[in-house]
Design brief:
The complex is a heterodimer of chains A (about 325) and B (about 290). By secondary structure, chain A is mostly helical. Chain A is built from 14 helices and no strands. The longest helix of chain A has 27 residues. In chain B, strand 1 and strand 2 form a beta hairpin. By secondary structure, chain B is mostly helical. The chains are: A mainly alpha (about 325), B mainly alpha (about 290).
């Protein structure tokens, strides 16, 4: 089952560059709540793109990525609150922490087939949540951590915006580069047909593990960035609900394109802010409804469906009626 | 010595509930080949429904529980049938991702349904008077209800096993589990088998949930835990194997109970470890055959 990559004619690189040129000028037009929203989109985009390294490119569905995001978030929160470690070091430590967890989880999970992998990642994500939830002395448990001090050079909204923009753009760019290296190609090949790829001498498990660790590194980084935005850390950002949100961001935008998750993140944040303004309490209901709708009607996501309509015979996405044999 | 016996009983009680949930899930997998993330949500729904039946329908009277024990599984069966017929049927045979997405969405929806209909406060179901007391076995005081749960579960096990091996529906289910496409070709109405199995799974989750209300409080957030546990049990026991579900349930139930005594905080980790070890040694579970 061949899944073509691309953005229906518009090259991914051009799309990214366009965003990169447009975004720095945004603060001229918007401030406050809306700028904060854009920053949330940037963070979620990084999170989603890193997840998509595993999902869209690696072909492994992970239901527990919020766990790694949470690790990044809490490590950042903890160090900012309780130590004087320089901020870049904190962020690096948080990402490394996430990657380390990713190494353990990945090592145990990537060798298994898709379904088992999904369950295992869900289970481990919940395990991380449970640890954070119960470890009251370190994480504040259910109460979470609030009043996290931000480094002074980020105290102005505009500096925070540019910091997050630069970091997330750089990371997304890095992931884009990774995906276009031979490593990335091999990964796509594994996704298409792991047995065949193995038979030409590629270590499937090792590639999957490396992709997983890279992904968790950036997911944790995203978590750390979010800490700057929210100045707090709560366990519900680590639960399956959050895993589902980032997963949906990938799927909604289109799992099989690089910018799909970015588009999906925009839609997700936008939807979330609209829903919480009008139907404050019913977000899970609506989110679930979107899941159901997407799975039934647009499983390829927005970009994927557009691709299907326009791409036609470019050896692109075949219908989802074909069974996928992992 | 008495403590060991008590823990044993506690573990077996847990195992009984777990078995009921896992058996339903493993049947739906094995026959329908559908991944139902929302199975745990059915279990939790059953608990809330039991609460409503005992308090609203019967005004909280002490033995109303036994009526709920009959009514709840029936309602869950109906709800399950509806979900299967109108939602799940669209994703048979599709990529696993799509099935996962759909049922994952259902988990979200159900989690909000609980909030919508029952609020955020924990609910306590009226305790039954009949079999509500304790009984003394070998000088150890054991709650009667725990024994009742174990007995109930054994009954279900026997009933399920004979359903699968001796009835026409059981034979059809096994056939569909072995090769659904061939069954279609042979003229068997596989869709009604799917519906039946899914309803059966929901009924089992209903029984489990109803029984569980007597053993603890009903609160939000239980769905994630029980769903993961159910999947672990199915994986450890082997997809499609009811025997496997029973074995896995006993193992996990006992590990949880004895683990809580010595290493309470890391019991969860222990269980995950059990799952990982089983998967590494027997990738299809203890009694399973290659399904996925």
């Amino acid at each position: 089952m061949l899944r073509g990559f691309g953005t229906s004619g518009v090259s991914t690189g051009k799309a990214l560059i366009a965003l990169g040129v447009f975004l720095p000028f945004l603060p001229l037009f918007i401030h406050g709540y809306w700028l904060h929203l854009v920053m949330e989109i940037l963070v979620l985009s990084l999170f989603a793109v890193s997840l998509n390294l595993v999902m869209g490119y690696g072909g492994m569905i992970s239901f527990g990525h919020a766990g790694f995001y949470g690790v990044g978030l809490y490590i950042t929160a903890g160090f900012l609150k309780n130590s004087t470690l320089a901020f870049p070091a904190v962020l690096l430590l948080a990402s490394a922490g996430g990657a380390f967890c990713g190494l353990i989880v990945g090592f145990l999970s990537v060798r298994l087939r898709a379904f088992y992998f999904a369950i295992l990642t869900l289970a481990f994500g919940q395990l991380i949540w449970a640890i954070i939830f119960k470890w009251y002395s370190v994480t504040g448990g259910e109460d979470g951590m609030i009043g996290i001090p931000i480094p002074p050079f980020l105290s102005k909204e505009i500096s925070l915006y540019f910091f997050i923009l630069i970091v997330s753009a750089a990371c997304i760019g890095l992931i884009y580069w990774i995906v276009n290296t031979p490593f990335g190609r091999v990964l796509s090949s594994i996704r298409e047909n792991s047995e065949r790829t193995e038979s030409i001498g590629v270590s499937v498990d090792r590639h999957r593990l490396i992709a997983f660790v890279i992904s968790t590194f950036f997911s944790a980084l995203a978590g750390g960035l979010y800490c700057l935005l929210s100045r707090s850390a709560f366990p519900d950002l680590v639960e399956w609900g959050k895993s589902g949100e980032v997963l949906l961001s990938c799927v909604l935008g289109g799992m099989y394109s690089f910018v799909g998750p970015i588009l999906g993140s925009m839609m997700m944040i936008f939807l979330q802010s609209v829903v919480t303004s009008f139907f404050t309490e019913r977000w899970p209901l609506i989110l679930g409804g979107i899941f159901v709708f997407v799975s039934l009607a647009v499983p390829r996501g927005v970009l994927g469906t557009v691709q299907e309509k326009l791409g036609g015979s470019r050896g692109l996405v075949k219908g989802s009626e074909l069974r996928d044999d992992h | 010595m008495e403590t060991i016996f008590l823990i044993l009983v506690g573990g077996l009680t847990k195992a009984s509930i777990y078995y009921l949930v896992a058996a339903g899930l493993t049947l739906v997998f094995g026959v329908g080949k559908v991944i139902n993330f929302a199975h745990g949500s059915f279990y939790v729904l059953a608990m809330y429904v039991t609460f409503s039946i005992t308090t609203k329908l019967f005004g909280g009277s002490a033995n109303s529980f036994w009526f709920a024990l009959v009514l709840t599984p029936i309602s869950l069966g109906i709800i399950g049938w509806i979900v299967e017929r109108f939602l799940l049927r669209w994703v048979y045979g599709k990529e696993h991702l799509i099935q996962l997405l759909l049922t994952f969405g259902l988990v979200y929806i159900f989690s909000d349904v609980y909030r919508l209909f029952w609020g955020v406060m924990p609910k306590i179901v009226p305790h039954t008077e009949f079999l509500g007391g304790s009984i003394s076995i070998m000088d150890v005081i054991v709650p009667q209800f725990n024994l009742a749960v174990i007995a109930c579960s054994l009954l279900v096990f026997i009933a399920l096993s004979s359903l699968i091996s001796n009835t026409r529906f059981g034979r059809l289910s096994r056939a569909v589990a072995a090769d659904g496409e061939m069954c279609d070709i042979l003229g068997i109405n596989t869709f009604s088998v799917y519906s039946g199995i899914f309803a059966l799974g929901s009924v089992l989750a209903g029984i489990g949930g109803a029984l569980a209300t007597q053993l603890g409080v009903v609160h939000l957030g239980m769905d994630a835990h029980i769903t993961i546990l159910a999947f672990i049990l199915v994986i450890v026991g082997g997809v499609g194997s009811v025997k496997g579900a029973a074995a896995a349930a006993v193992i996990v139930g006992l590990v949880e109970s004895f683990g809580a005594l010595f290493l309470s905080e890391i019991v969860l980790v222990l269980i995950y470890l059990v799952m990982v070890i089983v998967l590494l040694v027997r990738p299809f579970g203890l009694f399973g055959r290659p399904v996925f």
